Amino acid sequence: MPRPVSVTYRVWATPVEVAAGAAELFVSAANEAVEARGVARIAVSGGSTPKVMFALLADKSATYFARVPWDKLHLFFVDERCVPPTDDESNYKMTSEAMLSKVPLPAAQIHRMEGELDPEVAASRYEAAIRAEFGPGHPVFDLVLLGMGDDGHTASLFPHTQALFAMVPLVVANHVPQKETWRITLTWPVINRGREVAFLIEGAGKAQVLGDVLLGAYDPEAKPSQLIRPESGKLTFLLDAAAAAKLPQPTGGTLDLA
Ligand code: 6PG
User: What is the mean pLDDT of residues 155-172?
Assistant: First the structure.
């Protein structure tokens, strides 16, 4: 049976407001981590939704840039497409163009998944990079930012793919037949160890799947986002009104999932 979790979902009218809420969460999680442990380790997802949040964090005229402890931040990726970092499909490329190229985050603190390599090699190298940064014991990210596909996937944990069954590795190569491609992804147990785990989801096209994931039957092979049940017992969803349309309280609320 899945771990019970208390879901808090916050809803804003527009995607820009959601991005601001996500940027605020990024800043607060980073500062809490630095105050507590002297370092912040955050894993971010790719796709399109996080772009505006990244741009806000990099915008020196906004209220976030100056509050991010860039010198004490280590940025990791939740997943990556198996393409070079120069490819338009690359999550690293998107993140670099939107934020990394504009902020004083030292290169040694940007931990890129090497999508240009053989997927298995890239996965094992990334696992080693995580262990090198975190040291002994289970790595615990201070914040894991996730998206959700309209098929219920998160990270590169796609429905009915092998990565859903990976319990021991931190990182795996995952063949995704429905996209005829390979991906590199964090596994769901390492995501669930995150101190703070949050989904960033926008658009009417996600409303049905979000309702199915949060309110429907537990069927994680078909809806891998249901595997995300943090050990902290807390899970946050940052949503726009369009994505939240099927949820009980359209302006935000909590759901206790057994
Ligand atoms: C990726 C992401 C993936 C993403 C969802 C949602 O590599 O694509 O990590 O898990 O978060 O597919 O993508 P959008 O934000 O583009 O809807």
Answer: 98
